[in-house]
Amino acid sequence: MDIVIIGSGNMASVLGRKAFDAGHVILQVAGRNRLEVEALAKTLQASAGDLDHIDMRAILYILCISDKALPTVHQWFQHPKAIVVHTAGSVSMDVLAPVAKSYGVLWPLQSIRKEADPIPPFPLIIDANTPECLTILQDFGSTISSDLQQMNDETRSKMHLAAVAAGNFSNHLFALVKDYCDAEQLNMNLLLPLLRETVDRISYAHPREMQTGPAIRGDQATMDKHLEMLGKYTELKQFYQLFSNLIRS
User: Fold this and answer.
1) Which CATH number does the domain 157-248 belong to among 2.30.42.10, 3.60.15.30, 1.10.1040.20, 3.40.50.2300?
2) pTM (predicted TM-score)
3) Structural element, H or E, at residue 126
4) Distance between CA 230 and CA 139 in Å, rounded?
5) Of 18, 51, 131, 220, which shows the fewest CB atoms inside 10 Å?
6) What is the CA radius of gyration of the chain?
7) Nearest residue to 175 (alpha-carbon basis) of 239, 99, 220
8) Within 13 A of 226's CA, how many CA atoms are on the CB side?
9) pLDDT by residue (tens digit) across 36-72?
């Protein structure tokens, strides 16, 4: 399939590489950041262009741009004969109705970083405005992901919320723990087996059934000791108190 990637950041890089590795032809990478566009285009053996000179020969156009920019796409790009998709988890696909007759969504449910090598596997959430378009996106999606899931706008937005809560919030907690470990001269890598086991358990049991620690045991003495130790680590102490209260409630 002949493809044009619009954008040059994390999403553009990851989806572009996945499509290129699957044998698709990337005709062009287009975007505002000339240096990033040229670098990604070179990697994908594509031409580099700006938003005023988008190659109109492709079958599929993948918009890898910010959520807030999607409502303005029709002001600088329209293509009635191609399929145009965006890659946002929480934006309706109908934002592309003024852009193309056939449009949809390709959303990788993964924390996307262009530096990743290899690219981690991801479920690919898809949707389209017509059955014909959906079939084409399914065929394309199956070449870059082994786990395709169709979700409408409402379900996809709910899934995006779950991803933010599970991924972004937990990562912020990890950042606070990392700061604590560094300050206290502790090796955070020693926690990795614990964290992997905690995540692995989700695949076969409800997380609530797997809860361990002083809060679920009602061990107030240990919790009080921990809170005293966290005296100068204000934000981590707030997390500790909040989650302990929620766990034992």
Assistant:
1) 1.10.1040.20
2) 0.93
3) strand 124-128
4) 52
5) 131
6) 22
7) 239
8) 16
9) 999 999 999 999 999 999 999 999 999 999 999 999 9
